[in-house]
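Practice problem 4.
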């Protein structure tokens, strides 16, 4: 067997492993981690990493992601807990998925097929989650779908709905349109019983886009009306009503010095992160240093089981308290490149999916440290690999515009 055939087999295997990783990410962490690890091992030992280095080397979008990883490893130098810090530093391997993704053939149809695997995984998760909500399947972390209260689950449901609406919009075959509409309805029903309030917010924000895709009304007031009706349906859910009302009651409890609630603890963690940043504004507490910093802000009103958290459950505050102002700048830099180049190429499938997922990640980052969560963080990294193709395309478009203006 010659080298070309071996390389072709390796390329095909890489695609298969990516498909399996995307399928299992919303289902269960262990198999998705195994297949994700296999992706990186194959990418490295097959020589793809060296072969395709010129596809990303020198492109401006890679710099903030390298800076993000570098901060985590440098932060170990002043971390009060190097063991915990190493745990967070090792999580930067997620961003190798972006580089490995570049070795996948640049074929939009192939990318669409890969995204379908994620859609299959989130649909399986939604079915199990719905069965959990009615008591047919026990609510247990060891089962697929994990637990319906997970924030990441609700965010991935919204991403699945965005993908379904995108495929509906770009497909002319009626049978497939009905399938994508059914997928949306399945995921929407699961969102109605899911506990992740961040998913509600992301869904409300992107609802007009989803409704426009499915309806294609040229008059925006019709999109607004249907969006409002859909929102009312969501709010009629007893689960959604109880989760929203819980926010109000938790805030009232916090004002009465009862911090030991879901939202009260988050407010405490965010406040502690800001106070920690005020003490170390330029370099932060170091990688994994938040847990140590939190100890000095815990009062007697904090229950013993709620006195220790590894991160502040907020991506922005995580970077701010860990690495100070440089950490915040790097995170903004990362999201800026993702939003900028995906928006400028939003007419393409890859650009649209990357832009909408980045919006979902930003929303989710206000209530959880999504950039260090495997499911949401690894998907962001995989989609970031699209920039290797979108970046030169946008650069070429901008150059043409400049030439037209100058002429």
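Answer key:
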């Amino acid at each position: 067997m010659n080298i070309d055939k071996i390389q072709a087999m390796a390329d095909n295997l890489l695609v298969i492993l990516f498909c399996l990783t995307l399928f299992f990410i919303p289902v269960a962490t262990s198999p998705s981690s195994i297949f994700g690890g296999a992706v990186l091992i194959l990418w490295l030992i097959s020589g793809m990493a060296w072969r395709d280095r010129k596809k990303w080397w020198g492109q401006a979008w890679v710099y903030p992601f390298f800076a993000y990883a570098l901060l985590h490893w440098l932060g170990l130098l002043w971390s009060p807990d190097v063991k915990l810090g190493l745990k967070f530093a090792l999580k930067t391997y997620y961003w190798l998925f972006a580089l490995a993704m570049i070795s996948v053939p640049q074929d939009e149809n192939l990318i669409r097929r890969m995204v379908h695997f994620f859609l299959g995984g989130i649909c399986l998760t939604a079915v199990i989650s719905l069965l959990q909500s009615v008591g047919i399947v026990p609510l247990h972390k060891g089962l697929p779908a994990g637990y319906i209260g997970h924030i990441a689950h609700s965010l991935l449901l919204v991403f699945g709905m965005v993908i379904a609406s995108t495929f509906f919009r770009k497909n002319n075959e009626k049978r497939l349109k009905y399938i994508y509409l059914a997928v949306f309805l399945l995921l929407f029903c699961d969102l109605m019983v899911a506990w992740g309030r961040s998913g509600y917010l992301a869904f409300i924000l992107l609802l007009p886009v989803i409704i426009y895709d499915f309806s294609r009304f040229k008059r925006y007031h019709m999109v607004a009306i249907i969006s409002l009706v859909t929102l009312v349906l969501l709010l009629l859910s007893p689960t959604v009503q109880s989760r929203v009302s819980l926010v109000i009651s938790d805030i009232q409890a916090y004002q009465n010095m009862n911090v030991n609630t879901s939202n009260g603890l988050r407010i405490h963690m965010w406040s502690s992160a800001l106070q920690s940043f005020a003490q170390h504004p330029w370099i932060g507490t170091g990688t994994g240093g938040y847990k140590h910093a939190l100890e000095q802000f815990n009062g007697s009103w904090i229950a013993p089981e709620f006195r220790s958290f590894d991160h502040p459950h907020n991506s922005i505050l995580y970077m701010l308290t860990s690495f100070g102002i440089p950490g915040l700048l790097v995170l903004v830099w990362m999201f800026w490149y993702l939003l900028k180049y995906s928006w400028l190429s939003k007419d393409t499938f890859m650009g649209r999916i990357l832009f909408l997922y980045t919006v979902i990640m930003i929303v989710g980052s206000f209530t959880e440290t999504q950039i260090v969560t495997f499911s949401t963080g690894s998907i962001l990294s995989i989609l970031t690999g699209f920039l290797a193709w979108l970046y030169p395309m946008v650069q070429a478009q901008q150059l043409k515009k400049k030439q037209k203006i100058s002429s």
